[in-house]
């Protein structure tokens, strides 16, 4: 999954554009207990929020209307003990989220989303 502008290329290579503001599910896998959602703002839209959940652990990156917020809510013992998901902020504009499954996603402050590793 890759996104920018906001244009998406999914894991299977399909291309999609979301030009309206709103909240959208980018990817959901009940089998893997994984879901990624994006928040778009304005028209034409741009990414300003990302919420990613795996096994009940949730990471939210919010960068809308000049307000930046990063939050993490833990459901698994590993997360509660400080392990995965690992969230890093690199500089002022890049967030990187890594999950125990091996999935790694990133979001820039400019709204570009990338799934660096899709996981299992």
Q: What key phrases describe this protein's structure?
A:
single chain; 120 residues; mainly beta; 7-stranded antiparallel β-sheet; 5-stranded antiparallel β-sheet; 12 strands; 3% helix; globular
| Helical content class | under 10%
Tell me the distance between the termini: 14 Å
Q: Determine the structural class based on helices, strands and strand pairing.
A: mainly beta
User: Which sheet architecture does the biggest sheet show?
Assistant: 7 strands, antiparallel
> Helical region count?
1
Explain what this protein looks like in three dimensions.
- With 120 residues, this protein is mainly beta.
- The chain has one domain (2-117).
- It has one helix at 77-80; strands at 2-4, 7-9, 15-17, 22-29, 34-41, 46-54, 57-64, 67-73, 86-90, 94-98, 104-108, 113-117.
- A hairpin with a 2-residue loop joins β6 and β7.
- The chain is globular.
- The mean pLDDT is 81.
Brief synopsis:
This protein is mainly beta and 120 residues long. The protein is built from one helix and twelve strands.
Write the layout of secondary structure elements.
Blueprint lengths: L1 E3 L2 E3 L5 E3 L4 E8 L4 E8 L4 E9 L2 E8 L2 E7 L3 H4 L5 E5 L3 E5 L5 E5 L4 E5 L3
Antiparallel strand pairs: 1-2, 1-12, 2-3, 4-5, 5-6, 6-7, 7-8, 9-10, 10-11, 11-12
């Amino acid at each position: 999954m890759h996104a920018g502008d906001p244009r998406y290329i999914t894991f299977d290579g399909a291309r999609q554009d979301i030009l309206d503001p709103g909240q959208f599910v980018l990817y959901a896998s009940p089998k893997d207990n994984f879901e990624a959602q994006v928040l778009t703002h304005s028209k034409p839209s741009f990414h300003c929020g990302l919420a990613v959940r795996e096994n009940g652990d949730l990471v939210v990156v919010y960068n809308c209307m000049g307000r930046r917020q990063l939050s993490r809510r833990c459901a698994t013992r590993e997360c509660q003990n400080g392990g995965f998901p690992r969230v890093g902020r690199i500089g002022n504009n890049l967030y990187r989220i890594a999950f125990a499954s091996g999935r790694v996603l990133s979001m820039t402050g400019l709204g570009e989303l990338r799934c660096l590793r899709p996981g299992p």
